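Request: Not sure, any thoughts?
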Amino acid sequence: MPVLAPPAGWQEADLEDLLGGFLVDRLQPVTANLLALATEDDSVGRLLRKSIRNWLIDQSRKTAVVSLGRSVEKVLKESSAFEAVPPGEAGAGRWRLSGTTVQPWSGPSERLVEAAYAVPNIKIPKWTSETRRAPVADRASIEAVIDTVLVAAAGSMEVAHLVEVFTARFPVVLDPVVVSLPEDAGAQVTVSPYASAEEIVLARDDEARTASVAAEIVAMLSPQEQHMVAYLDRPGEIQTLLGCGRSQAYHRGACLKEKLQQLVGDGDGHGVRSVRSEVIRLCSEAVQTR
């Protein structure tokens, strides 16, 4: 997880701190898991690597939220479109559209996330780094989303509120950059009819993560979008489904593809393919049960 690397690179003290954090968070559950499932040294290693990887992913996502918060706050401070609520006014320290006088926002964020999704022409910079996260979007797009969200909120917002909306709108920003280990660092687990308990747990853990992520993505789609997923490569079917013209069908399909790319990711790794397939399956089932 290169995103967790200190600016000056890994030092022995940094690794000790990381190990200490893992032990504080996971020592008891990991120990119980090993005692229950590990049958020999190799299985101890596989289970322990899996636990460490999952913990590192969690830490990476926390780091991603902090980084996103810095990016959003930087745009807020540097853009003349926004201003901080001055001391003495309701919501002091929050952010609002420049020249407005509004009360502090409160309430569920779902409507704000919908507004963020409606912002057109979001541009995501091309990114080739294998060790650093891609930006959530270019500066103009970030500013446009903030502006739209503040309008929809009709109130001043904390940076943390905006970050919550951004992570829902751009969930791929939470996906950690992972650098593959050497082949001998751990073997791929294959479940066979004679699989041990620990092999089954490892495989089911991957399946559970895939199912959970896919279910969250499908929940972010409207019923109409869920219906469209099966026809993304067939504009004619989308045209019939929506009862619209061909150009509008192309546009709606392109918008949904962009949304799914943000939610699922656009890589070709096993994890992305698995989530993508599960999203399609869940959408198909949802349509059939209606």
Q: What stands out?
A: The longest strand covers residues 82-84. Strands lie at 82-84, 95-97. Residues 163 and 201 are 34 Å apart (CA to CA).
